[in-house]
Amino acid sequence: xxxxLAVSMETFLRLxxxxxxxxxxxxxxxxxxxxxxxxxxxVEEFIKILYDLGSFAWLMTGTxxxxxxxxxxIADSRQEGSLEVQLASPISRNTWLIGKFLGLTGALLxxxxxxxxxxxxxxxxxxxxxxxxxxxxxxxxxxxxWLVMAAVSIFFASMASAAVxxxxxxxxxxxxxxxxxxxxxxxxxxxxxxxxAVETLAGLWNLHxxxxxxxxxxxxxxxxxxxxxxxxxxxxxxxxxxxLACFFFNRRDIxx
Length: 256
Hints:
Layout: H1 2-16, H2 21-38, H3 46-80, H4 82-88, H5 93-125, H6 133-157, H7 162-184, H8 192-204, H9 224-250
Helix pairs in contact: 1-5, 2-3, 2-5, 3-5, 3-6, 3-7, 5-6, 5-9, 6-7, 6-9, 7-8
């Protein structure tokens, strides 16, 4: 337990001091504020545009950082030689890898809190008071997608080179965004086997489940059961990818 905590804290501190942390925080908050300004493009749909653009900025910025950091913490450990040194101590590979993920999770959650402060500044700037609990839940779900992609990035980094892992992580993210829209736009003439394959893929890997921005205007927000199911889905994905990461990491040459 102490080893896990030590690796987690070291990873968190390194990421917090990383050169990309401050730019990511500034860019993310800047994009959220720009979303507030851009929402005036449609006076009658101010709230809808605000949440659509804000959710998009939140998702893309956080996911980009999650993928980059997930790949970086593994690649840097190999290049610096710290991986061999730490594993030479009484610490298992699984503990080391999970500790890296927990440290990355802490850094992403800190970034999420900074973004949330930026979103609150939009509310105060427009005289709307304090953000409702609905907004906290909305952006917490989006932040869950960051953690899922962080696990995906660590999974690929544990079994491939940095370039390959980065490429695969990006395309996994793209696939997670397009599976549900593809399923919804299938023609009635689509063969049953093809439809079944697409529906299965969309059921297994669908990042749209973490985006609840469409429920902010004109629709009743997600029920407690729906929120728990989406949270459980995210935790399940994280568990699956981290389990696979540990499996392959235990069987790979650490200097390879």
